[in-house]
TrEMBL record:
Signal peptide: none annotated. Residues 29-39 have a biased composition (Gly residues). Gene3D superfamilies: 3.100.10.10. The keyword tRNA-binding does not apply. Residues 1-62 are annotated as: Disordered. InterPro entries: Ribosomal_uL15, Ribosomal_uL15/eL18, Ribosomal_uL15/eL18_sf, Ribosomal_uL15_bac-type. It comes from the Bacteria. One of its GO terms (biological process) is translation. This is Large ribosomal subunit protein uL15. The gene is rplO. SUPFAM superfamilies: Ribosomal proteins L15p and L18e. Coiled coil: none annotated.
Length: 180
């Protein structure tokens, strides 16, 4: 049997080029190593100590750049679930409500309130229910023979109403009188 190494001497594990691998840097191993004594950390200071790291963006007590520059932008959490729709985009629909708009993928499923705006010519009658409409859009829809149902306004809960002690006392007195 022949020796396999002599026939196939060129393999990945036999390839080598000088200088392709370097020994890792062993710091703090005496003066002759080149990185002895301070181990490449320099002399004194926060960065030379163990555990001594500086937070990202820290500028030595000076007001950091991210705090010096002006801030801008605001995203209201109140209007996160509301969308506006142009009348042009729904002019072909005959019935418009939240369910039909979600079914046609005009609004996302997370949308809770919608308002229709815009003025355009509509070829067919359109019935709008449960959606707010601007004056111009209302004229365009009614001009085409469409109808708009009034949107129900949710009443404000009592715990959100601002009350004073005097109004609370008068309310309790009137409830006592009505109970008698």
């Amino acid at each position: 049997m022949e020796n396999l190494d002599t026939n196939n001497s060129l393999r990945l594990n036999t390839l080598a080029s000088s200088g392709s691998t370097k020994n890792r840097k062993r710091v703090g191993r005496g003066m002759g190593s080149g990185t002895g004594k301070t181990a490449g950390r320099g002399h004194k200071g926060q960065k030379s100590r163990s555990g001594g790291s500086i937070a990202r963006g820290f500028e030595g007590g000076q007001m950091p750049l991210q705090q010096r520059i002006p801030k801008f932008g605001f995203s209201s959490r109140v209007n996160r679930g509301s969308k506006e729709i142009n009348l042009k985009n729904i002019s072909t629909m005959t019935e418009v409500n939240l369910d039909t708009l979600k079914a046609n993928r005009i609004i996302s499923k997370a949308t809770k309130k919608v308002k229709i705006f815009g003025i355009c010519e509509i070829s067919q009658a359109m019935t709008v229910t449960g959606i707010n409409v601007t004056k111009g859009a209302k004229k365009s829809i009614e001009k085409a023979g469409g109808t708009i149902a009034a949107v129900e306004v949710k009443p404000v809960r009592e715990k959100f109403l601002k009350t004073t002690k005097k109004t609370n006392q008068t309310n309790s007195q009137t409830t006592e009188e009505s109970a008698e």
